[in-house]
From TrEMBL, chains A, B:
Protein's UniProt keywords contain Metal-binding: no
Entries under SUPFAM superfamilies matching the protein: Galactose mutarotase-like, Six-hairpin glycosidases
Organism ancestry: Bacteria, Bacillati, Cyanobacteriota, Cyanophyceae, Leptolyngbyales
Enzyme active site: E510 (proton donor)
GO molecular function: carbohydrate binding; glycosyltransferase activity; hydrolase activity, hydrolyzing O-glycosyl compounds
Superkingdom of the organism of origin: Bacteria
Pfam families: Glyco_hydro_65C, Glyco_hydro_65m, Glyco_hydro_65N
GO BP annotations listed: carbohydrate metabolic process
All copies of domain Glycoside hydrolase family 65 central catalytic, residue ranges: 347-710
Keywords of this entry: Hydrolase
Xref: InterPro entries: 6-hairpin_glycosidase_sf, 6hp_glycosidase-like_sf, Gal_mutarotase_sf_dom, GH65_N, Glyco_hydro_65_C, Glyco_hydro_65_M, Glyco_hydro_65_N, Malt_Pase/Glycosyl_Hdrlase
Species: Phormidesmis priestleyi
Protein name per UniProt: Family 65 glycosyl hydrolase
Glycoside hydrolase family 65 C-terminal domain sequence ranges: 719-780
């Protein structure tokens, strides 16, 4: 159901430009949204797009991935096995602040007379730029140009180039470059202005405790330790300065703050160039002293290299990224400007996915990346189901890193399975440190499908990259423990002719919780069990020693593999003969259909306006659930079946989750509702640019951004990759003339260019690739494009 | 399933004596349990049975019914409509403390050389008595006799008579009589030593804030106000003193403490008699000053009347109570001592039910009465389903008070219905002030059956007492709003042939939550709807003006009554044709049967050892649910059906709730499992005396105590009162020779004496009563006993 049209941010805040996001005037009423959209990150350091002046600010924030505070979850009514340790991503000292004083007059945007204003995020260069001309009350015109980056190449480094010129007069200018931690209102679990329904709450006490700090010449380093999680943090700034004007420099620090003050006797027309280098280091083991030393080294290197070197490496990193990852569209002439906005939005999505994952290295992917503290910086299934496909096909190294991160949680997942009275391993529904942090089991722990989601992502990773080494080392162990969980959780039901049933689970759709035989969960678990069986069987034959080692390590018995095979084979798939549709879960059709007609627009999302029990007793779907199953495991459903299911369920789906529209678009596309598919895809693609969820202030919806790629490539591009076999059945919306993207497949590079009547496949690198085009096999050789005719399925 | 045998407290702690509970030696390892068992209360003031010395103590406590602190319930993950205001019954200043010093040596039980020790609760006199002879280290023998009561007649009054005699020598004796509030550890939501799974938690700040206090001569008055709920409390003590020995008296107070010190030059053999009067007053409106004045007046009156007057009125109150309420048993000779213990236990149960309700007046009945802070002093459905039947048949005035209390919550119940997205009224699952305080909706708010429970209790009250005035005034309004809730909650299901279904509800059994068509809920809701229809129809005919007033007040439309009738008539009753049994709820039989065989005894109660989701996906029942429906609405089931259902469900019922055994006993009795019924009844009757739940320290299980009466009268006595028609079909356990009880029925008094081969019915007061004895009609005239032959159904 498509009920929400793009509404919020007016178009003018980002006039279209395919590689940039440009703000042409200061717009205080979208402060929070712009901070999110303009956030820079490399997946380790994240900095919201706040002004250098530090003020006005909706919600400032610099974040370090995996840097969190833990706290005992207190339930008003507790029960056995409830998650015990909450985790919250923390603000760290803000190092971006550069305050400017001219004639002792502070530069303050809301009251400044601005002769010129432009901010832009440049997705090719990877910088956030601002150019301002400010006329002071005394009539002096001051040019302020800044360029900010968080380095993709240097994980611990960010930098700002800051250039001030007094255009038309001499003036005493003071530039105060700060690093500052604000215990109230930024380092705390703050409720202020959060719009997210599961909003981040306040800590009772300050969590970041100051340790040593130092200020020497142009360098300041602060160190902190978290109160409960006992993580150490060092944050530092250093500066280079270039100007022909006379200058004096002072620096100082105390506990939570440090600053370097540049006092310049500025001369008219002579630029003052300041470069600020910012570094962050965190550790769970190292001392404050050691972390401080690491910061010193990072800053030494940064200062030595200089800002230009940073921008060059940034550009080169992004050139490589876009070459592999860009999705290009060409529109029909009548919709050019709309298409340009879409082109911009697609790139904006991919850019933020890169920002969220690039240097996460051994860490996870927070739901909002590092652009805001929505969902407390937790890692969810978004990773494997919404973001991993894009990375697998464009940046397989990043995909592997995320898989390795999941593997690193396996021991904690084993503990968690025990805690919920099961064997095997149960990955946490939401977490930072690997411990389950979901405090509402109905829409948390009960989403056992997280296990199958992770395995699904891993399977796709292995099949598309061909990385069997990972499969046989880490993957196989994950398969054993996840399969165990499923086998232990389910049972062969006499009442269902001995079929294998999974009860009291929650699927992706959080408007139907703790149900029996959620179809998504059942088919995903089936896939998980099957993949465990086939992988272990292969491993036993191909590497018997490795198999034996693994069997010993995990206590695996051969009979377990037989059991899993039986469970997979006999998996129960709920189906309603009368309506001829699958059931989202056993009792779904027993419920009343939600009264959509009498639900006004402002009552969405429903979860903010109705008691859960009221929602649960209706046929209403928050987000793609059965539809998601039909996409991920589409080879288990006939096209006819998909059509029937889509027609029934899509009408019930409110899309109250940002994880929905992209999937609805793909399935709509497949079953022939091309206009609807286009509308859904547009929703997914502009989710944050148009603030469709109304909570972009809290951070970007990274899953929807990965989903934007999927709705282009899987949706309109018609890519399917069941069991690693590549096929295409594209369907181009009428607004588009051409859709182009590249895919890395088993170390080969495929370019796909789709037009309305034909598709051109080009293997740019590789030894040869077989694929199917509309069910016809095509064999590609490197360098030889193949153009195939596109038979259009009738649109419904 | 009967899996737990009486275990904990050894028999010797209460040698049998049918009217007393006697402790013959100081037993420190049962401190907590004895404090609970020896608690005194009149339903307004409750005092745990702690020693006068105030030490040693497991968990001291004086409570005032309805005196609570409120607090915002904080959820780690919140959702729309979750209960917002938590409420916790508070400790109030402890006024029972009397410290004794001889030769400046403190009397301290754990180290004292006791030549004699006896404590006893006397259920005929209504006092807690203690007699001790203490030999001091100096060899002086000191007799200490105390008698404590909480007055049934004077709601705000308690008293202690305290007599000390230096038997064999003169000695300086100091008696320090205190009143004291301990902010840490007693007034707070303490976790210390609580064994209840839903234990009371700590407040962050002290909640009882001291206001004015005064100490004059032998009187001390303290006043306090609660921080958040803003209730005012005055607690006061006063004393009379009688001795021929020289004495000096001093009193003082500060904030939370006051004391009166009696320094006596005691002479050998000359008794020192001190009487302490304690009074408590609470208000939500009055000032500390005003409350203090009220206390002064109460103490003035008490001192004037004297202790003897208090004991006389106490005795007379109890004489009347026992005449109406006693259940007497006579045993076969071979089991005399066991039978005596049962006789004692039955009386102990009835005594505590009286203590919990007697002077509650306009207040509710906490789950533990006022004997401990388990379940935070909340009022539950226990009131109507477990305690009300006893009160209706023996103390109808108390039953009416409880009904009036429920009516007083109606406006808040209307608000609550709105909060959970429904119309009508939804009574809170647990509350003190009328607001829902359940913070776990699955086993709280989802128990919508509370509405029907209240109406069920009200219907029984009206039918047995004949109080149609209440029905037509308060009752009818409650019926309208509860019927509305049901009609709004449910729907006519096309998939169930248009039958009326109730989805996403939780029945009494908290091991199966948020289910569809819980049979108990459906039949109870049906009864609620039917009673609404019949009452309103009667009212419209008999008192059209009153009906019109009510219709205007509630906005009632006649079509609603038609709707309710249709919903009741078409109510869906889940039944499994294959097994020929009713379903506890729609999917119950789809679950796996719990693996009882491999569940060791120490894994019960299951809720403390398994994750809720694990429990939910099994066929396992915490407490009588379908069985309870078969008891309360037994006329909706054939005997054959009850047998089949009982055989299936009783084997799955762990009895992990104290609300279970009594019901299981009654149904077991009805379907012919007389030995099992006897065992269950024994469990219900000695629940606290044998600490069967292991948490008697936290307070008595008042519901099980009311249930003890039901298992005697409804179970073995075979009473049924469907729609107010009285019938008997007794089944006496082989251990008993005779069972005797009295019932007040529509202002007549019926005595029933059951023997193995006959039953004698005697109408002691009244104009004539018709009843059925084993399906044969008997008409009784006052004063003319009728003896009927008892045909014994074969025991299974």
């Amino acid at each position: 159901m498509l009920h929400r049209q793009p509404v919020n941010l007016p178009q003018y805040t980002y006039p279209c430009c395919p590689w940039q996001l440009i703000e042409k005037q200061y717009t205080p009423h979208f402060l929070g949204q712009m901070e999110t959209l303009y956030a820079l990150s490399n997946g380790y350091i994240g900095m919201r797009g706040c002004f250098e002046e530090g003020d006005p600010v909706h919600h400032s924030g610099t974040f370090i991935n995996g840097f969190y505070e833990s706290w005992p979850i207190v339930y008003p009514e507790e029960a056995y096995g409830f998650a015990k340790v909450g985790q919250t991503m923390l603000h760290v000292p803000d190092s971006t602040i550069i305050k400017l004083y001219v004639d002792d007059e502070a530069f303050y945007l809301p009251t400044a007379n601005l002769l010129h204003y432009e901010r832009s995020l440049d997705m090719q260069i990877g910088t956030l730029n601002r150019e301002i001309i400010w006329e002071t009350p005394a009539g002096k015109q001051i040019s302020i140009k800044s360029q900010r980056l968080v380095s993709f190449k240097h994980r611990h480094l960010a930098a700002i180039s800051y250039e001030v010129t007094a255009i038309n007069a001499d003036a005493p200018i003071e530039i105060v470059s700060k690093i500052h931690y604000e215990p109230k209102g930024s380092g705390n679990r703050q409720s202020a202005n959060y719009e997210d329904p599961r909003r981040t709450k306040e800590f009772a006490q300050r969590v970041l405790l100051p340790r040593m700090c130092s200020a020497e010449e142009r360098r300041v380093i602060l160190t902190h330790k978290t109160r409960s999680s006992e993580l150490t943090l060092a944050s530092g700034i250093d500066h280079t300065f270039a100007s022909e004007c006379p200058i004096s420099i002072n620096s100082e620090c105390i506990a939570d703050s440090g600053e370097v003050v540049f006092s310049v006797a500025a001369q008219a027309g002579v630029p003052i160039r300041l470069t600020k280098y910012m570094t962050y280091h965190t550790s769970s083991r190292a001392s404050a002293q050691e972390m401080s030393t690491r910061s010193q080294r990072s800053l030494d290197r940064a200062v030595k290299k200089g800002f230009e070197d940073l921008t060059l490496s940034q550009r080169s990193y992004l050139d490589d990224f876009w070459a592999r990852s860009d999705v290009q569209i060409e529109s029909e002439p009548d919709v050019t400007s709309q298409a340009e906005a879409v082109q911009q939005a697609i790139r904006f999505s991919l850019f933020h996915v890169l920002q969220a994952t690039s240097r996460a290295d051994g860490l996870g992917l927070p739901a909002k990346g590092l652009t805001g503290r929505g969902y407390e910086g937790h890692y969810f299934w978004d990773t494997e189901i919404y973001v991993l496909p894009f990375l697998i096909y464009t940046n397989p190294r990043l995909a592997q890193n995320l898989m390795r991160f999941r593997y690193s949680l396996l021991d904690k997942a084993r503990e968690r399975a025990k805690a919920v009275s099961q064997t095997g391993a149960l990955f946490p529904w939401r977490t930072i440190n690997g411990e389950e942090a979901s405090a509402y089991y109905a829409a948390g722990t009960a989403q056992y499908h997280i296990n199958a989601d992770i395995i699904f992502g891993m399977k796709k990773y292995v099949e598309i990259t061909g990385d069997r080494a990972f499969l046989y080392r880490e993957g196989a162990e994950m398969l054993i423990e996840t399969a165990r969980l499923w086998y232990d959780l389910g049972f062969f039901s006499d009442r269902e002719n001995g079929q294998f049933c999974l009860h009291s689970v929650t699927g992706p759709d959080e408007y139907n919780t703790v149900v029996n035989n959620n179809l998504y969960t059942n088919v995903m678990a089936q896939e998980n069990l099957r993949y465990a069986v086939s992988t272990l069987t292969d491993l036993q034959q191909s590497q018997p020693e490795r198999f034996n080692d693994l069997a010993i390590k995990t206590g695996l018995e051969l009979s377990e593999i037989t059991d899993w095979h039986r469970a997979a084979t006999q998996m129960y798939i709920p189906f309603d003969e009368k309506l001829g549709i699958h059931l989202q879960h056993d009792g779904f059709l027993d419920e009343q259909v939600w009264d959509f007609e009498n639900t006004p627009e402002d009552k969405y999302p429903l979860l903010l306006h109705f008691h859960p029990l009221f929602i649960y007793r209706h046929q209403v779907v928050k987000q793609a659930d059965l539809e998601l199953a039909m996409f991920l495991l589409g080879n288990k459903f006939s096209l006819e079946q998909k059509r029937k299911n889509f027609d029934y369920y899509d009408a019930l789906t409110t899309g109250d989750s940002s994880l929905s529209a992209c999937i609805q678009s793909i399935v709509a596309s497949e079953v022939g509702h091309l206009e609807l598919a286009t509308a859904y895809a547009f929703n997914a693609i502009v989710m944050d640019l148009r603030d469709l969820s109304g909570n972009s202030k809290d951070g970007c919806h990274i899953a929807s951004m990965g989903g934007a790629w999927m709705s282009a490539v899987y949706g309109f591009g018609g890519l399917r990759d069941y069991d690693g076999e590549i096929s295409f059945n594209p369907r181009l919306p009428k607004q588009l003339k051409c859709l182009h993207f590249s895919l890395a497949i088993r170390e080969q590079l495929l370019s796909v260019e789709i037009q309305h009547d034909q598709v051109t496949y080009l293997l740019k690198e590789g030894s040869g690739l077989d694929l199917k085009h509309q069910n016809k096999k095509i064999s590609l050789m490197a360098g030889s494009p193949v153009t195939a005719k596109l038979e259009l399925a009738p649109s419904l």
